[in-house]
Write a structure and sequence with these properties.
This protein has 142 residues and is α/β, with parallel strands linked by helices. It is built from 5 helices and 5 strands.
Length: 142
């Protein structure tokens, strides 16, 4: 999660919402990313989506079955869907997102039994640090 926070700090420095993600396979980070929506003018350039794309390219497969993703903020519906579709094993996130969280805060896509793939969810990892960088960013915008 500390590596995901480092990615969030890079996003902050770039004027992006400070959210970072890393994907881990067998204890090794295989992909890392941060939000780049403003930089790329692309609504899908969330940290999770970019990290999933990088991991798939590195592994030569869209199936990330033995991978875990660490994200500083609870994923939105788009990212939760991508996590399910890529068959990621575990989602670990820092801060909950009471406005758009799709891992239990607003909706719970990852807990919905309708999907054929189940993702284990671990929340609250470095929650204070993950929430604080977001608070700093939005204070700066105001």
């Amino acid at each position: 999660m500390r590596s995901a926070l480092a990615e969030a700090k890079m996003a902050f420095a770039d004027g992006e919402s400070p959210i970072g993600a890393v994907i881990v396979l067998d204890g090794e980070i295989i992909a890392s990313a941060h939000n780049m929506r403003e930089t790329k003018n692309d609504a899908t350039s969330h940290a999770e989506i970019t990290a999933i794309r990088k991991a798939g390219k590195k592994l030569g497969s869209w199936r990330l079955e033995n991978c875990d993703i660490y994200v500083t903020l609870e994923p939105c519906a788009m990212c939760a869907g991508a996590i399910i579709q890529s068959r990621i094993r575990t989602l670990c996130y820092g801060a909950a997102d009471p406005k758009a969280g799709a891992a239990g805060s607003v909706i719970d896509l990852l807990g919905d039994k309708i999907f054929n793939h189940k993702v284990e969810v671990v929340s609250g990892i470095l929650e204070t640090e993950s929430a604080e960088i977001l608070k700093q960013f939005f204070r700066r915008l105001r």
